[in-house]
């Protein structure tokens, strides 16, 4: 009897998982969003945050007496782009980032810049250095420079594992919970519950099918980042796979819980945003989670996406092993296990 | 030997918020019969069948299925029942074969997928997506899914609602074959012809109560009138019911919404007498119709309302 039960469980799990994968692959839009979106995101961010060490400084010089001398000095120094700004348009040009600093010729000259912008501050320093040198200042010494441009220490290297984590969370949460709520509104869940189908097999199949997509999704993103941006995985690919898998399990469990009672797609969308928003903000996708105040850290560190991103960065950027990431992995397993068990209890079949 | 009881309800009650959906229902269904629950929409048919299916728990009373109770033997009962629900929409982007394979996997034993396809006549559609099927084909697929585990009892909730006549006949064939194999069927319907054709016995349900029970023939016979005469008038108020009761063959008379309905035990005597009496009274008859008494008339006689009125 126990054997019979186990074989029904396995047969149900296999068929449910296959059905889910088939349904997904037959939905072209869904396929695009799951696989295309992370690639588009990586391209967009890769372009926005590409290394800009050779970028010229953009300067405007107001047309007053002495403007020509200032322009000549900047041209001699090199590395500046001079842009004309109409009179009265200075504030706006600075605000919109059209110019980074405006020089008002005079004795002494005035620098107008936005101290809240890093590039504006840098531009002010560069302009100042060029004008001071033109006025006769000499450097006390010439430093040696050692520019860090090594692969693995750029922003994009840090960003890609975060995007991978965010993607594991996002697609997992959306696709799993939408599948559940759709089946519930179509009364398919009630129909399943009227058969001897082991209920845990249904929930497990949703997570199982996620793992199948995850392999593709993760490979697409990591391969794309490697080919286009030379982002490399310093640790082992096996470790990366295990971390991704545990992450997908954790978010699969959370998605089951979020969708365990929702009756409409609108309802579950709201819940998903509520659950995911804190993680988008706090879990270090685009900027480090350590930027948040000390008092918030226990909360930030308990979030599953923080653990996943830390573990992914550990493997990809720092070449860490699974053993050294046990804390993050345990946290993910805990989230997955507890939410799966809770979902099984709370789940509404009709 | 008395027939073996497959399903039993005893004083079953189910309430939703402030509505009593099922109000003290007693019912027995025997092994190998096709039992129909007939009643208008909202009569409590679906609630009753879902309590039998173990999908709803009664607030009071007892439900027994194949001699066992849901609370104690739910896991053992499930594989023995085939259930088709009223509003299930199967996945559009799975094929017929894939859908059947999925449902078959839930049962420890049962029919093969080709066997199920043949049973409901969907062999030609085996590879088609569910979303591309017609309403009748979908309904047959839904019944095939319910048959996947080779059940002892088949539950059908309004299986032919919204189907064209051809599809209804095809589905009826499927059910007859299941019954011929020794299966028990419990179905709800609000089509009296369907109940009369398919069911061995019928329970008429209204407002959560069983108001009549018997074979279709016995129920019609219980009316005491073999024929029904309906008369509509060209303007003016029709004469009151008592006006007709003395006429030959008239067993009962009712007036509702301007239509006079007469139950007659001798139609050949009733019609001339009615026409003569009305002509004498100067009433302008617009239409006179007669038909053999049906389950619909049984329902109207019991409740004063039509099945379709809901």
Molecular structure report:
The complex is a heterodimer of chains A (350) and B (310). Chain A has two domains: 20-49 and 151-346, no CATH class; 57-134, D-Maltodextrin-Binding Protein, domain 2 (3-Layer(aba) Sandwich). Chain A has helices at 2-25, 28-48, 67-77, 90-95, 118-134, 155-185, 188-193, 199-229, 237-258, 265-282, 297-302, 304-316, 326-346, and strands at 57-61, 80-82, 101-104, 110-113. Chain A starts with a helix and ends with a helix. Chain A is mostly helical and 350 residues long. The mean pLDDT of chain A is 87. In chain A, α2 runs antiparallel to α6. Chain A is elongated, with a radius of gyration of 27 Å. Chain B has 310 residues and is α/β, with parallel strands linked by helices. Chain B is 33% helix and 29% strand. Chain B has helices spanning 45-52, 70-77, 96-105, 113-119, 135-146, 165-180, 192-198, 216-222, 242-245, 267-281, 295-303; strands at 5-16, 19-30, 34-38, 60-65, 81-84, 153-157, 184-189, 201-206, 209-214, 227-233, 250-256, 259-264, 285-292. Chain B has a six-stranded mixed beta sheet, with helices on both faces. Chain B has a four-stranded antiparallel beta sheet with strand order 11-12-10-13. Chain B has a three-stranded antiparallel beta sheet with strand order 2-1-4, with helices on one face. In chain B, α3 (96-105) runs parallel beside α5 (135-146). The longest helix of chain B is centred in the middle third of the chain and has 16 residues, at 165-180. Chain B starts with a strand and ends in a 7-residue tail after the last helix. The interface between A and B is medium-sized, with 27 and 25 residues.
């Amino acid at each position: 009897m126990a054997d019979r039960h186990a074989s029904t469980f396995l047969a149900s799990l296999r068929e449910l998982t296959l059905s889910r994968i088939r349904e997904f692959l037959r939905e072209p839009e869904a396929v695009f969003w799951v696989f295309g979106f992370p690639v588009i995101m990586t391209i967009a961010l890769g372009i926005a945050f590409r290394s800009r060490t050779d970028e010229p400084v953009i300067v405007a010089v107001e047309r007053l007496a002495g403007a020509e001398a200032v322009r000549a000095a900047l041209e001699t120094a090199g590395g500046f782009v001079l842009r004309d700004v109409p009179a009265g348009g200075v504030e706006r040009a600075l605000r919109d980032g059209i110019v980074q600093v405006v020089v008002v010729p005079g004795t002494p000259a005035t620098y107008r810049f936005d101290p809240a912008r890093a590039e504006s501050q840098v531009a002010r320093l560069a302009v100042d250095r060029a004008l001071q040198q033109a006025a006769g200042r000499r450097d006390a010494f010439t430093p040696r420079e050692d520019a860090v441009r090594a692969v693995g220490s750029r922003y994009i290297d840090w960003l890609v594992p975060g995007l991978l984590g965010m993607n594991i969370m996002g697609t997992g949460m959306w696709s799993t919970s939408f599948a559940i709520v759709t089946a519930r509104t179509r009364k398919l869940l009630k129909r399943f519950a009227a058969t001897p189908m082991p209920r845990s097999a249904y929930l497990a199949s949703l997570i199982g099918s996620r793992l199948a997509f995850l392999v593709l999704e993760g490979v697409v993103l990591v391969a794309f980042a490697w080919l286009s941006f030379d982002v490399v995985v310093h640790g082992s690919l096996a470790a990366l796979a295990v971390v991704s898998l545990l992450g997908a399990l954790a978010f699969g469990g959370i998605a089951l819980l979020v969708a365990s009672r929702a009756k409409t797609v609108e309802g579950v969308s709201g819940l998903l945003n509520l659950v995911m928003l804190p993680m988008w903000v706090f879990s270090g996708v685009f900027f480090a989670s350590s930027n948040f105040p000390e008092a918030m850290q226990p909360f930030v560190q308990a979030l599953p996406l923080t653990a996943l991103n830390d573990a992914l960065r550990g493997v990809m950027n720092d070449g860490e092993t699974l053993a050294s990431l046990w804390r993050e992995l345990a946290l993910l397993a805990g989230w997955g296990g507890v939410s799966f068990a809770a979902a099984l209890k709370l789940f509404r079949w009709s | 030997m008395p027939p073996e009881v497959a399903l039993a309800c005893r004083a079953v009650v189910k309430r939703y918020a402030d509505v009593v959906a099922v109000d003290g229902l007693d019912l027995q269904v025997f092994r190998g019969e096709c039992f129909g629950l007939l009643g208008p929409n909202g009569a409590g048919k679906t609630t009753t069948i879902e309590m039998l299916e173990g999908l709803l728990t009664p607030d009071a009373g007892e439900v027994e299925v194949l001699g066992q109770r849901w609370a104690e033997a739910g896991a053992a009962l499930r594989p023995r029942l085939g259930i088709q629900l009223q509003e299930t929409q199967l996945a559009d982007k799975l094929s017929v074969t894939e859908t059947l394979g999925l449902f078959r996997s839930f049962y420890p034993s049962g029919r093969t997928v080709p066997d199920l396809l043949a049973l409901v006549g969907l062999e030609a559609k085996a590879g088609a997506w569910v979303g591309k099927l017609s309403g009748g084909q979908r309904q047959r697929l839904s019944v095939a899914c319910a048959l996947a585990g080779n059940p002892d009892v088949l539950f059908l909730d309004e299986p032919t609602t919204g189907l064209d006549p051809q599809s209804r006949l095809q589905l009826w064939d499927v059910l007859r074959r299941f019954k011929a194999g020794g299966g028990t069927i419990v179905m709800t319907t609000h089509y009296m012809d369907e109940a009369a054709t398919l069911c061995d016995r019928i329970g008429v349900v209204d407002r959560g109560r069983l108001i009549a029970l018997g074979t279709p023939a016995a129920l019609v016979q219980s009316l005491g009138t073999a024929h029904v005469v309906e008369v509509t008038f060209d303007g003016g108020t029709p004469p009151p019911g008592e006006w007709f009761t003395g006429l030959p063959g008239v067993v009962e008379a009712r007036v509702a919404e301007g239509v006079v309905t007469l139950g007659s035990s001798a139609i050949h005597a009733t019609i001339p007498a009615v026409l003569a009496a009305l002509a004498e009274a100067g009433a302008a008859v617009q239409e006179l119709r007669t038909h053999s008494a049906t389950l619909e008339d049984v329902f109207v006689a019991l409740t004063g309302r039509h099945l379709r009125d809901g």
